[in-house]
Structures are given as C-alpha cells and as structure tokens.
Fold these 4 entries.
Entry 1:
Amino acid sequence: MASNSHRGGTGGSFYGGAAPYRSREGLSTRPVAGSDEIQLRIDPMNADLDDEITGLRSQVRQLRNVAHDIHSEATFQKDFLDQLQMTLIKAQAGVKNNMRRLNKSIVKHGSNHIVHVVLFALLLFTVLYLWSKMFRR
C-alpha cells in the first residue's frame, strides 16, 4: 500500500477526512450519484485482491469506530443540552415566583412607603419654614 493516489486531493471533504476506499492502482472507486453504494473496478494486472480487501476492511473498521465516537459525542451533547434546558426552565419558574412575591409585597407595603415619603416632605417643609422665620428677624 505504498503508492496511494487519492482522487480529489488528500481525501478531504468528500470522505470526511478519511482516506478514500482506494489503496493501489489496481482497485479504485467510482462514486454513484445519490446512493450509499460504492462500485469497485478491479484491474487484474495490478491487483492483489486479498491486500485490497484487507485494506478496505481496516478502513471500514476505522470508519465504524469514528461513527461510534460521533454517536457517543452526539449523545453526550444531547444529554447536556437537555440538562441545560431543564435548568433554564427551573430558573425561569423561580424568577416568576419571586416576581409574583415581590409584586404582592409592593402592593401590600407600597402605600406605607408613600405615606412615609409624604410625612417626610411635610416635616422637611415645616422645618424649613420655621428656620426661615427664625433667621429673618
């Protein structure tokens, strides 16, 4: 498997970063449009079929391992997002309950605050009035 020649560069985007299913000049792939199948063309002059099959099996095994890793990572991320969503829902419920309590407290004690402000303003006005009367003379 010394002379690898890959169609389309270094095996990049079409094969997802993996080497294409081709290991020697005797065996090459032809992509079939709109299908998951791979068609192989075997050149009997240069082909060592057993080595090619072994190479393909190892590539399939590697792809299977990559697919398994992708699946486990996707499962982990899905579970993580579900936990985040539940945390967000709980936080929203807590904020809603606290806002309801705060509004009840404001309605219940709000009028007392207004009375205190009005009394303070009257007291301040009275003190300023008396002070101005005392120092004018």
Entry 2:
Amino acid sequence: MAAIVRLSSVCRRGVQPLFYQSTLLARPLVVPNKHQEQTYLLTARIHASQGLNASSGSRAASLHWTAERVLSILLLAMGPAAYFHPGPAIDYSLAAALTLHGHWGIGQVLTDYVHGDTKIKIANAGLFLLSTVTFAGLCYFNYNDVGICKAIALLWSK
C-alpha cells in the first residue's frame, strides 16, 4: 500500500524544505492495514543531496551543474549591463558566455539522443566545430562591426 505526502504538508509541520538540507529527509508515514485495526509505520526517504562518499565523477558532474547555473545567472545579469553600459568588454563577455551556454545546452541534447561510440564522437566533434565557429564569428562581429550590444539596440530601435 502506498501513500503520497505533498511537500507543502511536510513543510507546514516544521520540517525544513529539501533544498536546505544536506542529509536525507526521513518522513514517517502511517498506513492502516485493511484486516487489522493497528497501524504500521513506514519510512519514506527522499534524497536531498549527494552522499558524502561521492566519487570524483559525480563531483565533477556536480561542479559542471553548478557552473551551468552560475553561467545562466551571469547571462541574466549581462542583459541589463549590456543595455546600460555597452562596450567591448560586455560584447566579448557576451560572445564567450553565449557560446559556452549554447555548447553546454547542445551537449546535453547530444548526450540524451545520440547513442553509439562512433556517433557520439562524430557528434562531439561537430559540436566543438560549431562552438568554435560561433565564438569566432561573434568575436569577428565584435571587432569588425558594431558589436553585439549595439546590434541588439539597432534591432530594437527600428
């Protein structure tokens, strides 16, 4: 027999939310048996974070996940900065951040949908080529034309 406990009901009873804990959250559930009047105590465990004995591969994946989130937040901050203070530093920062963001995003799609050793190697080579050409093109545009910030401002002005 299964029981579902909503996170909001757990939080209202004084248990800290999952995202603020570094250990397992154990929430006892009481399930009545149909044939008897007494209840049985079950324990539901929800993993809120990685275990303490994580291998180096999972640590690298965790750092990569954190870097993706930091880059996303930086991209959100670069929008207003590019609008209020356009310049070469912001242009080249946007070129690097947008290229890296796209590289990581397409890399995740390739991880999910490309299978087979040879296909994965070809897809990764194509991804590196695409990312290199993208970054080089954005840098070329920044150096030889108006730059990313002013180009977007020109698009909005018309």
Entry 3:
Amino acid sequence: MCKGLESLPTTCLERAKELKALFGSLLQKSDHSINSQSKKNDKLRLNVEDPLKWKESFDNLLSSRNGLCLFRAFLHSEFSEENIAFYLACENYRETKHSKLAEKAKKIYDEFIGSDAPREVNLDHVTKGITKENIVQPNLSCFSLAQAKIYTLMEKDCFPRFIKSSTYLEVSRKAKTG
C-alpha cells in the first residue's frame, strides 16, 4: 500500500523534476551538450537519446538511472510504487551475503508479500505460498518467481501507461525535436 510522498525517495522526485527541466533547456540549445549545463544538471549525465531508448523496451527503461527515477515517480503518481520498490529490493537481495539472507528475506517478505504487508504487491496465492516456503531456507533466488510476476505486471501494465503518460510524451517529444 502507498505511504504517500514520504515513501518515494526525495532524490527520485528531484531527479524527475530535474530531468523534465533538463530536457526542456537542453533541447533548446543547438549543441545538445550536457557539459554546457550547470553543475547541478551535470551530475545527471543524461544522453538526449535516453527517452527514445526507454520506449524500445522495459529493460532499457530499467537499466537507465534517469529512466528508472522517472518511472518510479510515475508509479508513485499511480499509487503503485510498491511494484518497483519490490523489484529493486529483489535485485538488491541477490547481492546479499549468505550470512544476511534470512534477515533480509524476512524483511522483504514482511514488507511486500505477507498478508499484512504495508506495501503489498499484487501476487496470486500460489506465488505467495511458494515464496513463503522459499524463505524458510533462503537462497539468492527465493524471490525469483515473485519478482518475475511483478516484472511482467509492470512490463505489460505499468510500462505502456508510462509510455503514454504526459511526462514521458513531453520528454520524448523534446528529445525528438531537439
């Protein structure tokens, strides 16, 4: 469930606003050089072609730091930010040291999958059951099935809505007309 604006990292909201402003000012210049932007915008290291690549595939969007932040802000506005938060928590979990797996698995399960999870993701009963069994003896892939289901949900449902959103359309239009 959504906790409101405080659940979305401030950096993502700021980055989404910076991206929108950056594309607006960047694409009005003739050289399209990030180096000509202020130091604040330099840290974005944004390629003008990025928004056009994001539309090509969901993986392109997720692999772009700026695209991910803009997508996360979009999901927050749609009250479904828990999906990307869960997906990213699973990605982070795969890098966990063996000694910390049980603790981290329980935390992820309790936050996103359990029946009283504060940020419960939309998973079917079978997937929840399998995941609950998997965390009894956790390994690096105990969330793989649940993560794959959420990835597919975002790819088939959220991603197309994002590509049609006014924010994305404005950013991509500015990138095209540069």
Entry 4:
Amino acid sequence: MAGNNDALCQPKQEANEYRRQIQSLTCEVGALKGTNESMERQMREMEENFNLEAANYQDNIARLQEVIQNMKEEMARHRHEYQDLLNVKMALDIEIATYRKLLEGEESRITMPIPTFVSLNLTCPVLRLETASHHFSPTCGRTRLKFLTS
C-alpha cells in the first residue's frame, strides 16, 4: 500500500504544482495585461501630444510663411520706393549739372568785354539802365538797357 500511496501522492503533488504554476502564470498574465493597458494609454497620450505639437508646428510654419510673404512684399515696396528716389536723384543731378553749365556760361559771358555805348555809336532819345533782379549770380548784377520814349 505504501507503493500505491506514493503512486497517488505523486500525481496529486504534480497537479498541485501545475495549479500553482497556472495561478502564477495567471497573475503574471494579469500584470502584463495591466502593463499593456498602461503602455497603450501612454502611447495614445503620446500620439495626442505628438498630434498637438505637429499642429502647432504647422501653425508656426503657416505663420512664418505669411511673415516671409509680408516681408517680400515690403521689400518689393522698399525697392520700388528706392528706385523712385534714385530716379529723382538722377533727374536732380542732371538738372544741377545743367544749371551749373548755364551759370558757367553766364559767368564767362559776363567776364567778356561788353561794348560800350560810345563804341557802338548809338543815338537814342533816352537811355535808362536797370538792374534785373531775377538774375541768379552772387558775384555780379546784370545790366539791361531799356529805351524810353516820351
């Protein structure tokens, strides 16, 4: 009988061992399910955060592209204004050069000897000398003859 008892005890012990292993594995599976659920929740949260960040970056990109476009338009406007100012400057430079040549010509004409009335041998009833006020010369005035008749 001792042999039968040992033969019966051994399968019972093995069954109990298997039950403990099943319980241990069941606990381990439960813990892994909890870990899995926690990781899935973290993954969803990370995906949501990533999507929010991606949307923020897209908004930033759109805003920066708008800023770039505005700056390009402003630069084009400044370039156009600069070109207008450059054209005005060029026109003023040409006008200054023209007036400078006119003044130089007028100064050279004034410095040339002017024939006098005696040398012209004119006979006029009355001569009156007037100084023109519209002449632009800081060094000398311009004398004009005006014939007066009675």
